[in-house]
Amino acid sequence: MDVFELVKKAICKVEPGLDESKIVPAALLKEDLDLDSLDRVELALSLEDELGLYLQDEEMGDIITVGDVVALIESKLKVEKKS
Domain extents for the chain? Predict the structure, then answer.
């Protein structure tokens, strides 16, 4: 499963009933998907559990779109592979 699919799955877990067709890389977390700050924390925790990595609050604070989440996860996975 690619990173986008993992992020999509995590968003659906945090926001059950959300129309999955709305979850595209350009979708805005707050405006398009209606994820508030608590939902974003839950999203980060879900991704951390799924992937075994740590997402800092500052990093998640800069996230605006689904694509931003995917890019952050991909960068974390690349750093872990180098370590």
Answer: 3-82
Coil vs helix vs strand at 28: strand
**Given the residues 2, 19, 34, 36, the one annotated as active site:** 36
**Mean pLDDT of successive 10-residue segments in the chain (83 residues)?**
92 95 97 94 94 89 94 87 62
Q: Is 19 a catalytic residue?
A: no
Per-residue tokens: 11: 């968003």
Report how far apart, in Å, the C-alpha atoms of 78 and of each of 3, 28, 53, 69, 82 are.
Answer: 12, 25, 11, 14, 6
- How far apart (Å, rounded) are the C-alpha atoms in residues 33 and 27? 7
Alpha carbon of residue 23 to chain centroid: 11
- Rg (Cα) of the chain, in Å, rounded? 12
What is the DSSP code (8-state) at residue 56? -
**Fold designation for 3-82:** 1.10.1200
